[in-house]
Write a structure and sequence with these properties.
98 residues; 4-stranded antiparallel sheet; 1 helix
Amino acid sequence: MVHYTKKTKALVVVNRPATHASKPVKSKYQRGEILLAGNIMEPVEGQPSQTRFTMITHVNPGGVVDNPLCAKIMNRLSASAPIEFVQKLEVAADCRSM
């Protein structure tokens, strides 16, 4: 679902989990699940070339990683993975503008 707010000019994208017949669950793999995810993109006031990008995810890793130690590791990864995602997004956008 995508929502645009005229007042703040923010773009909100909400994602929910989905399944697909071509990728069934297999017993030899543990599949984590993104329960809910969202992205908020909003302009930075006074900076027309900048966008504030907020990522929100609620994940159930499942299996053996569903414990306090792995939760700590996942929380640390969740701080760096979005930055890498945006950097890769920026590279892809630059390639398309050439």
